[in-house]
């Protein structure tokens, strides 16, 4: 299996598995390392994604380039308004 297919397969698993369920994560190979980029919902999601990538790609150096939506929000989400 080629490297790009392997990266897409890991991305698919990250999107589909209940423990990660992150659609905005992309993997690439740069300088012999796996770079994990994109946006995740929380720090817990970041840790889960990075742990899963390390487990699926044993022996590979993994570089964290993820951003956290929690950190980029000016205000926490509010409950929805009730319209009449």
Average residue pLDDT = 86
- Beta-strand content bin: 25-35%
Structural class: alpha+beta
Find the count of extended strands (DSSP E, 2+ residues): 3
Count the DSSP helices: 3
**What topology, given as strand order, has the largest sheet?**
1-2-3
Strand-and-helix sequence, N→C?
HEEHEH
Main sheet makeup: 3 strands, mixed
- What helical percentage do the residues reach? 25-40%
Query: Using only CA atoms, what is the Rg?
Result: 15 Å
Poorly predicted residue ranges: none
Core attributes:
38% helix, single chain, 3 helices, 25% strand, 84 residues, 3 strands, elongated, alpha+beta
Structure summarized in a few sentences:
The protein has 84 residues and is α+β, with helices and mostly antiparallel strands.
Structure report:
This protein is α+β, with helices and mostly antiparallel strands and 84 residues long. It has a domain at 3-60. It is built from three helices and three strands. The protein has a three-stranded mixed β-sheet. A hairpin with a 2-residue loop joins strand 1 and strand 2 (33-40). The protein is elongated. The termini are far apart. The mean pLDDT is 86.
Topology:
Layout: H1 3-16, E1 25-30, E2 33-40, H2 43-56, E3 62-68, H3 69-72
Parallel strand pairs: 2-3
Antiparallel strand pairs: 1-2
